[in-house]
Amino acid sequence: MLRMMNVIILSAILFGCANDKKVTDAQNVVLAIVGNDTISGNDLRSYAQKMNQSRINLMSDEERQTLLNGLVQNKLIYYYALDQKLNEINSIKLDVATIENEFYYEKILREYVHFSLITEVETKSFYERLKTEVRIKQIFIGYKNPEKTFVIKNFEPVRSRTEAKHLVDSLYFVIMKQPQSFDTLVEVFSDDKNSRYLKGDVGFKRWGIRPELEENYFELETGKIGRPIEADYGFYIFKVSDRRNVENLKPYDEARLGIKEKLLPFLFRSRKAEIDKKNQVFSDSLLLAYSFTPEKANCELFLGRYASVKTSAELHSAFTESELSQALASFRSGKITIGEIIHNMKKNTQKIKLDFHILKDGLSKVAVRRIFADFANHQHYKLGDNEQEALRQYEMELMVSHAVQEINNNQVITDESVQNYYESNNEDYRQPDTIMVSEIVSAELDRVTRIYEEVKKNNNFEEKYNQAQKEPGVKCATTGFMPITNPDEIIQKAIRLRSGAVSEPFRKVNNEYAIIKVVNGRKGEIIKFEKIKEKVKEDYINFKRQLSYNEWIAKLSVQYKVQIFSDRLKSAFDIKMN
Q1: CATH topology for 132-245?
Q2: How far is 229 from 235, CA to CA, in rounded Å?
Q3: Distance (Å, rounded) from C-alpha 47 to C-alpha 2?
Q4: Beta strand residue intervals within 459-541, DSSP E
Q5: In the chain, where does the domain assigned CATH 3.10.50.40 lie?
Q6: Cβ–Cβ under 8 Å, residues 171 and 189
Q7: How far apart are CA 443 and CA 93, in angstroms?
């Protein structure tokens, strides 16, 4: 989120802003009204980018509507949370303050550490590079990366990294032999659907947006092709097709700060060790200046109680209220209490190894953030509008999450209600259905086809099955009753047939040919309640939560007067791009 905001801010600092009224009007169209608030196409796009745990296709009417409904519900819950003053809950205030401190921490580091490592010569050199844009074409060969989530993408690659590397190297070999083949290879192989049918053209690019790629293509002469380069979840081959001078570049003095910001990614890549060392020296100097001191007796108390519990989740109940307020460390402008550290550890699913030295190191990291924030305030630093908005969004997410959790925690679950749920839905707790399948198999397609034609004509599968058992080069087999969830090729083929039906000849994975008949099928038995009580209880809790949530949203929709304009969704997203 911070990186996206920085790109927007820096583009405004360095360049004039382009203005396409048609696109802007479409993106700003009001899609819903919630109380006194409106939801626009831009709001929905931002929401989609945050929902990065799922694949979202904004060209799908159904997914657009689902996304809009989700954003409306978030707004409703936020209004409710404000009315309930959930932003005054200590845990939420602490989490918001932690992010605010992080903003100030980053500001101070940039000003006193990072920017000090960037010379005026480097800044002016970067500015000179901004005066030129290059137009590039690209071939993109993607691969499946389990560490990346594909959001609002037109494809999901299925090949492995090794396969992608082999393909891109092969394409590069061909292109070096026949440079004119670039355009054809783009249309055949590139995974970037947006540029594939434009012969790979992705337009003019400015320096400083994606350093890991730009260092490849900005050095190329017009008409030249760069070696394959890897980034994110794929490989690129770039070709520079044109260059031009930038007309709307701001004067150096106005753009200087923004240029230093843009230089940071280059700095982190080439001088990370130097940055880390200077960060440490600066942080240690402030810790010393603010008299950071661990309270050893309280630290030993904390470590003793921590050792006595099985999980971090049990830690809070191991202390009295007065103990929770005791300081583990103090410094000139504040202290870090036992309760705060327990709150910070609440997301730990497993206990970690902890001794005094590890605890002291962790306390110093927390203290540094707070000391930096205090230092920033004394230096009259202020958060920018975008940082304030990010902070507000984060607080809103915490409040919404807390409100939903309250609704979930209010569910009353009894053994009788779980039993009744099972009785009403016991069809959902059947064992998988089973089927029995007979197959006639041969390595010769002609032989299997001949048997199939006779069976089709005379409806005599059993007779041909018995005869085929004696025929050289033909194998016959009948499975026992197999669950339809069995991944075996024959079973998965059989479940597409009705009982008693015979398949057409097909090629098996071992390159033999076969026909099959579903001999019999049995419906799975209902699993006894005692065997799956916990599973039923989990299902019932989820059912109750969803039911209560839907009823709650319905009431809030009336209370805050929701209006949704679904007919405007299409115009907000179907924007023709030049």
Answers
A1: Chitinase A; domain 3 (3.10.50)
A2: 5
A3: 15
A4: 474-478, 482-483, 506-507, 513-522
A5: 132-245, 431-522
A6: yes
A7: 71
Q: Taking a C-beta distance cutoff of 8 angstroms, is the pair 553, 73 a contact?
A: yes
pLDDT in tens, 99-111: 999 999 999 998 8
User: What helix, strand, coil percent values describe the chain, rounded to 5?
Assistant: 55, 15, 30
What's the rounded mean pLDDT across residues 490-499? 91
Does 3.10.50.40 match the CATH number of domain 431-522?
A: yes
CB distance 223 to 214 below 8 Å: no
Using CA atoms, how far apart are residues 2 and 441, in angstroms rounded to an integer? 61
Neighbours of 467 (CB within 10 A): 15
Q: Which tens digits make up the pLDDT trace of 170-191?
A: 999 999 999 999 999 999 899 8
Residue 33's DSSP bridge partners are: 38, 563
**Cβ neighbours of residue 102 under 8 Å, at least 6 residues apart?**
369
Phi, psi of 235 (to 5 degrees): -115, 145
Q: At a CB cut-off of 8 Å and minimum separation 6, what does 220 contact?
A: 134, 226, 238, 239, 240
